[in-house]
Amino acid sequence: MNQSTGGGSVARVTEIAARSEKSFDDAIQIAVQRASQTLRNVSSAWVKEQKVEVSNGRVTAYQVNMLITFVLEG
C-alpha cells in the first residue's frame, strides 16, 4: 500500500486569557504576543469571550478569552 503525506498539516488549539487596563485590543495583543513566546507557528486567534471589570461604576480592566491555533511541526 502506498501512503502519501500529501503536504497536509495538523494544528492544535489552546485557550488562553489576557487582561489589560487599556482596552480589548491591548488585551488581544498581549495574548497573541505571549502565546507566540511559548508556541511555535501560531497561525490564528479567535476571541471567544470578552468581559470587563468594574469598580465604582467605571471600567477598570478588559479581559479576553481566546482560542489560539498553532501548526504542529513534523
From TrEMBL:
Annotated PANTHER family: CALCIUM DODECIN
InterPro entries: Dodecin, Dodecin-like, Dodecin-like_sf
UniProt-recorded name of the protein: Dodecin domain-containing protein
Pfam families for the chain: Dodecin
Phylogenetic placement of the source organism: Bacteria, Bacillati, Candidatus Dormiibacterota, Candidatus Dormibacteria, Candidatus Dormibacterales
Naturally occurring in which organism (per UniProt): Candidatus Dormiibacter inghamiae
